[in-house]
Design goal:
694 residues; mainly beta; 8-stranded antiparallel beta sheet; 6% helix; globular
Length: 694
């Protein structure tokens, strides 16, 4: 454990991880350039897992999961309004947890030995000797032992903490600091929880395995939490550099804090991938140094009641009509918070006020929270719920992401998400109603552009713009055929069967994956064992076509998964393949199966003729993909970075060197379609269309 020196770290601070450092050699090094010089990297690295390479911190999976074992921290800093930490992080897997039991040792070793089950075992073992493996078998056995020993941990579904830590070697997520915690959401992958009122509150669900940009801004008490992702169209979060507010905490009072990242667990039941921190910055932008920090409108009325035409402390002038008091900041608000004095009357917030009385009213009163829409003089109830607040001080927040509202009472969600649709043009007014004395009001913008001291250069997302091929297998006039092989592609070259012995047929519905064939082993016991060693236990099928641009392929296919519902014995493993040669390629496929109440998108790398199934990278996508409903799967790959979308929504981002640090970029010589093995085989998916851009 590294002990942080007592001096206060510099502001501003920027650590871009440009200095390569081997495992276990990060803590104690000096990095970053600030007004007072560099900062010492502190924290804890119990298993010697932290490293720096490729312009990012690398956090390898812990063999013994738990808080207090892998953290990077900079500090100490002392609480000041506006003091902020920003991080750009690609978590190993937002759904990481160790709540699910690991298999028996025999089952674990059997799966490790068979891998993806598409190669004979002797072939796998011989190729492994030349493979740049992430983890030796000894390390994997340590992880098996450590994770099984950690069964029953009440925090098994939390995996990562980001922001302000109360200690450089915390024993809980932040040790009472101010942070965002990533936790497993199971079939929906991950969720973000913000620390508020002494505990975590869910502020963003459906978190896919994409890079996260978070900024945590300290207040006099508490903090304001902001987040974005690196790709346009992600569920719930904007594309960086634009940040969206998640929650304002007003209770945290720890004075001495460390800016940092703290990993608890990566992966699930043996599968794991390294986390990457691409940058960490600390700054105190001058416009954020008042009590309202990032708000674009705020006030603390002198006697608790706004006065018509009176200027606010920041960002507007009060307009009062009856029991409604409104101010109009310059732009839409994404988080509106009000603190009300003790009293017996309703505590109400006004959001999306359009100037002619049209607005959305949020009311906390008599054990009930409600959202109402006021239109044309009439009021319509949108949603309501019970709560347990009394007549004491009340802190109410409304988080508005542009289409839905979440209502929080004293830092805890009491209502939402409530669908209210996009705000009308000009509906930017915010305020209070109900007559309860107001202590303070603050409204934070829906979209915040961070200053350079807290912004990061965008991560590369290679995408094609030039159409190269477009094959419509279900188009009118396509002649049915027993084998896709030999069909001339729109790029001019024929389709070839590159992997597997069975054929994709083509009919009016598209290119059809054949049902999986049963594998039979004959003879006595020794003969059957020898047969199993000579042959793979499962099969992968792949068809490819020549590709003219070896450094970029942006592929899209429309897939119809077999069946119409769960429990029909149908499953899909259909996807895309980027082919250098038979020993080196990338596969991205779906996993739809009766055995789980959700679907995933998985990526598999074959390098030097070897694949390790435990190095697969995946994301859980809920039921975005389901039986009998066509969906669009798209992956763009430049030989190093691959990004995947489902029906236009980005769901997975990774680099080859995130998985294998010493790997070279692949050349994309062929591209195509695949029916992969992934704990079962495809039972009859259809590829309707296939397109490629460079």
């Amino acid at each position: 454990m590294f002990t942080q020196p007592p001096s206060t770290a510099p502001v501003p601070l920027a650590d871009g991880f440009t200095d390569d450092r081997g495992r276990g050699k990060v803590l104690g090094s000096v990095a970053g350039a600030g007004a007072s010089g560099g900062a010492t990297r502190g924290g804890v690295d119990a298993e010697g897992l932290l490293a720096v390479d490729g312009g990012a911190l690398r956090i390898r999976p812990l063999a013994n999961p738990g808080w207090g074992r892998a953290a990077l921290a900079y500090g100490p800093y002392h609480r000041e309004p506006g003091l902020s930490v920003g991080l750009l992080v690609l978590n190993g897997h937002h759904g990481s947890e160790h709540a699910d039991p690991w298999p028996s040792l025999r089952g674990f070793l059997s799966q490790w030995l068979k891998g993806t089950q598409v190669d004979p075992i002797p072939h796998r073992l011989s190729r492994r000797l030349r493979h740049h493996t992430r983890d030796p078998l000894r390390r994997r056995l340590q992880a098996w032992r450590g994770h099984r020993a950690a069964a029953g941990d009440p925090h098994a579904e939390d995996n990562l903490a980001l922001g302000w830590l109360a200690s450089p070697h915390p024993s809980t997520a932040t040790d009472g600091g101010q942070g965002l915690i990533v936790g497993s959401a199971h079939a929906e992958n991950g969720e973000l929880r913000a620390e508020a009122s002494g505990g975590p509150t869910v502020v963003q669900g459906r978190l896919q395995n994409l890079p996260l940009h978070v900024v945590v801004v300290l207040r006099e008490r508490g903090a304001v939490y902001w987040a974005a992702t690196s790709l346009e169209g992600a569920a719930g979060l904007p594309a960086a550099p634009t940040l969206r507010p998640l929650l304002a905490d007003v209770t945290g009072d720890t004075d001495e804090l460390w800016a940092g990242v703290h990993q608890r667990v990566i992966g699930q039941v043996g599968w794991s991938i390294d986390s990457r921190v691409h940058g960490l910055k600390v700054a105190r932008p001058q416009p954020w140094t008042a009590w309202w920090t990032t708000a674009h409108a705020a006030d603390r009325p002198a006697d608790g009641h706004p006065v018509d035409a009176a200027p606010t402390e920041h960002g507007g002038t009060w307009a009062v009509a009856g029991d409604v008091a409104v101010l109009r900041p310059d732009g839409a608000s994404g988080l509106v918070r009000a603190a009300f004095a003790p009293g017996s009357g309703p505590a109400g917030l006004v959001v999306r006020h359009a100037g002619a009385g049209d607005a959305v009213l949020v009311t906390i009163d008599a054990g009930r929270a409600s959202v109402e829409r006021r239109v044309g003089g009439g009021t319509v109830l949108v949603a309501d719920a019970d709560h347990t607040s009394g007549a004491g001080p009340v802190d109410v927040q409304v988080v508005d992401d542009g289409t839905t509202l979440v209502v929080l009472l004293d830092g805890r969600r009491v209502l939402g998400p409530v669908e209210v649709g996009p705000a009308p043009v000009g509906a930017t007014g915010v305020g209070v109603h109900g007559g309860r004395a107001l202590v303070e009001l603050e409204a934070h913008p829906l979209a915040l552009q961070p200053p350079d001291d807290l912004a990061f250069a965008p991560l590369p997302v290679p995408q094609g713009t030039v159409p190269v091929l477009a094959d419509d297998f279900a188009a009118l006039g396509v002649v049915p055929r027993a084998d896709l092989a030999g069909l001339t592609s729109s790029v001019g070259s024929p389709w070839e069967r590159s992997v597997g012995a069975r054929a994709f047929s083509v009919d009016a519905g598209g290119a059809l994956v054949p049902p999986a064939a049963a594998v039979e082993h004959h003879g006595g016991k020794l003969a059957r064992v020898a047969d199993k060693l000579r042959h793979a236990s499962s099969e992968r099928l792949a068809y490819t076509v020549a590709w003219p641009q070896p450094d970029l392929a942006d592929l899209t296919t429309t897939i119809l998964a077999p069946g119409t519902d769960r429990d029909q014995g149908e499953g899909s493993r259909a996807g895309l393949i980027f082919w250098q040669d038979p020993a080196n390629f990338l596969i991205v496929n779906t996993w739809l199966d009766d055995g789980y109440d959700g679907t995933s998108v998985s990526s598999f790398l074959r390098l030097g003729g070897y694949e390790d199934v435990y190095d697969a990278v995946w994301t859980n996508v809920g039921r975005r993909i389901t039986w009998g409903v066509p969906f669009e799967l798209r992956t763009a790959f430049d030989g190093e970075v691959h990004t995947t979308w489902v029906d236009g929504e980005p769901v997975l981002y990774r680099r080859v060197t995130d998985v294998y640090p010493r790997a070279s970029a692949l050349r994309i010589n062929r591209v195509g379609l695949v029916a992969n093995w992934e704990f079962g085989q495809d039972t009859g998916s259809r590829f309707v269309r296939f397109e490629g851009r460079s």
